[in-house]
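Researcher: Excuse me, tokens okay?
***
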Amino acid sequence: MQKIFPILFFSSIILISCATDNDDEISEAIVTFNFSHSWDATAVTNSNFNTIQYTNANGEELSITKLRYLISNITFQKSDGETFVLDGYNLVDVTNNTNLSFSPTTTIPKGTYSNVSFTFGFNNDDNYNNNYPDLNAASWSVPAMLGGGYHYMQLEGRFINNITTQTGYVFHAIRAVDNSGATPVFGDTFFEVDLGEVTITNNASFEINMNIAEWFKNPNTWDLNVLNNMLMPNFSAQLMMFQNGQDVFSLNAINQ
């Protein structure tokens, strides 16, 4: 028995040490953002595209043929003001069913954060000089005459107009520009999506939903008969998109 005790003692030390190491290994969490889509309460995937089956707030029946959008600057903020901005951006491509899940390479410390947010599109510091080869290859850039930089969203489809004819709509969000004067006037139309307070205890998956119907709903009831094409150079239309986008995204769940 006297020989067994030291063995058990040192075994306990090893077990305690291993447990401490395991705690250290999960002090930094990997976060993943999964993007789903809906038309109000109805789920939307690319398998639902190309069929007129949705009705917007203005009463127009429509389909979706393309949906892509950019998110960037995922930020975790603590109550003392300390922030963790995760590297990278993500071009969510619902049309091709790609990039619906995004895992930044940067990890974050476990703990409670007073707010988590991301940017829809690029802010002005990032939306500059077409410096992203992958976005250029994806035909995501904006013509120089419209200020350059990148799209924030491309939403396209067909709708039944007021003479009951199917026609196309092109709902593209960019930084607003007014070229009517001698000098272009710009309006910021990227926006921050706040997800609220969270406590991170382990690797976490954020389930984010975009309600596509909201783009046409609030506070501006969108009339596709009037605003269906040539919206990129339309300064007022871009500001209306910005306003309608404020309630588009929601946090469905956090899985840890």
Observations:
- The CA atoms of residues 177 and 186 lie 4 Å apart.
